[in-house]
Amino acid sequence: MEREPTSPVVLFDGYCNLCSGSVVFILKRERGDMFRFASLQSKYAQKLLGRLGVGDEAPDSVILVEGGRWYARSTAALRITRKLRHLWPLVYGLVIIPRFIRDPVYDWIARNRFRWFGRRQTCFVPERSVQYKFPDQ
């Protein structure tokens, strides 16, 4: 991977049912062919994060890479909603809530995601029709 991705890339925990379900949710609602996806466990994600200088501060749930920058936790989730169809972009308005309030709520959900939604035995595998959106497939 020599170049920065031209499409926003959603990095997610491929073993998390909530995270994998969120990918399916985004795929059904994205405007056009907007996003690319990779599990955080993939070599693609590790190389991309390394190039961006993301170290141990990276969360293990969701990261959005867009325009050469990376966004994590609630900011990543809200920025993703801006690029969805229908009324979902309105959710981005929650960005006015300070991050020091948003992120602890996000982190609480992330800490409990396996207990509430379960954990996959194998990493998420996309349907054949959208595999081109997953550079590590």
Structural notes for this entry:
The chain has one domain. It has helices at 17-29, 43-51, 73-81, 99-117, and strands spanning 9-12, 36-39, 62-66, 69-72. It is globular, with a radius of gyration of 14 Å. The protein is α+β, with helices and mostly antiparallel strands and 137 residues long. It is built from four helices and four strands. It is 36% helix and 12% strand. A four-stranded mixed beta sheet has the order 2-1-3-4, with helices on both faces. The model has no long low-confidence stretch (mean pLDDT 89).
Short recap of the structure:
Helices cover 36% and strands 12% of the residues. It contains four helices and four strands; from the N terminus they run βαβαββαα.
